[in-house]
Amino acid sequence: MKTALLIDFGSTYTKLRAVDVDNARLIGAGQGPSTVATDITVGMMKALQDLEAHIGPLPRFTYRLASSSAAGGLRMVTVGLVKELTAEAARLAALGAGAKLVGAFAYRLTRGDVKKIEALAPDILLLAGGTDGGNSEVVLHNAEALAASALACPIVYAGNRAVAEEARSLLCGKTVILTENVMPEFNVLNIEPARAAIRQVFIDRIVHAKGIDRAQAMFDQVLMPTPVAVMEGARLLADGCGGEPGLGPLLVVDPGGATTDVHSVAEGQPSQPGVISHGLPEPRVKRTVEGDLGMRHNVSAVAEACGLETLARDAGLPADAVRRLIGELARDVERLPASDEERALDRALGRAAIRLAVKRHAGTVETVYTVQGPVLVQHGKDLTEVGAVIGTGGVLVHSADPGAILETALFDPAEPFSLRPKAPRLLLDRDYSLYACGLLAQVEPVAALRLALSRLIPVDQESRHERTVSA
Question: Could you tell me which InterPro entries the record lists for this protein (predicted)?
Fold first, then answer.
């Protein structure tokens, strides 16, 4: 029997999933603390012991594959030419590569900008700018400015192809990886090569820099950052493989302690006739990270974004109680809900984080008045026709009614210009298996698809009603 051990070295926990590959079946799960800051093998050993306690003696695994978001994830800075064009393309490439974007710069870098970048201490810098054969002055100026900086991180160059070698010469002394331009022509995105280059830098260098390779004897390979593994799982679920169908266009939302991540796999073209798309084309597989919408590290920001009174009303708690609990959560980010009022607040925080994150991820439509009359103009992706919304993450998995949290991702008639999903199936990734399926897809894609589909459970209104009736 072929088996796989799929590992996520996270910032809080080291998580394991053991899989029977032949039957696309989850054998068991284990978890240990994240000890990447000291000795990563300690947390890994505890996770293996936990797995063994659940399933008995461990098999000799055929595959042992890992992803990681430990040590704060992949810190990345992007530099582009124009904020709305190449700088935005670089931002989309960085987020799609699983990075934590800590800074984004455009135009000619000033000395002050360079000092800010040095202070941010990124793991990777993505340098873009100019279409192929277009403006080269700014990207070369920025290459020269970065060459004179104290930055020691790898620099991925994804700018004007005509001056790529000249930029590399200017960056002499730095580690430079050349890849294809993220915007070879005006308004044409080409971010997959940059994503691949970032992923390779992660595998070749960051794994060592973060200390993850200390546990090398316990796994075969770290393949990608964990957010990329989740995205690959989402892509597999949408597209299917090996002649087996997927779910079609979908959305995945993951409210976490520090951020809320949203992934969409959809073309996002206007679904209504007469609507005109405007702005940079959106990638079919898109990830956004809302750094101010974390259930613990940014709990005060969530309350501020949605309004304390709104949060209290949704939780069914007095505003004073909500204010007190938020203060306690902000001081103790490891805290899990232990009382009815804490569970009610967690539910309201999850609803707020998902509603805001999906609203930012989805496109909008507005009426623009032209000399020919009013025109409907779309910015971003139209997700109204998406067929499935999948929730993952602790606040959903541990909720008694995850559907009531996940439904806040949907279209709201009170906000008709926000192009969120209108009538999708609501599904729950009940055992946080998406990352594992994304990893397994690299070696056994059909088994990964079958496993991913088997771990989803419906949590929409109809299934909630059925559960209530049967109970």
Answer: MutL (IPR006230)
CATH 3.30.420 applies to domain 3-71+209-219: yes
Rounded Cα gap, residues 412 and 295, in angstroms: 23
Domain 75-204 has CATH 3.40.50.2300: no
List where CATH 3.30.420 sits in the chain.
Answer: 3-71+209-219
Q: Which of 390, 403, 397, 405 is nearest to 355 (CA)?
A: 405
How much is the average pLDDT of 374-392?
A: 95
pLDDT value at residue 467 = 47
Longest Cα pair distance anywhere in the chain, in angstroms? 74
Burial class (CB in 10 A: 0-12, 13-18, 19+), 173: exposed
Q: How does pLDDT run across 323-370, given as a tens digit for each residue?
A: 999 999 888 877 888 999 999 999 999 999 999 999 999 999 999 998
Answer whether 40's CB lies under 8 Å from 215's CB.
yes
Q: What is the mean pLDDT of the chain?
A: 90
What's the sign of the alpha-carbon dihedral 47, 51, 57, 58?
A: negative
Whether residue 72 contacts residue 13, with contact meaning beta carbons closer than 8 Å, is answered with no
**Average pLDDT, stretch 130-151?**
96
E strand or H helix at 208: helix 207-209
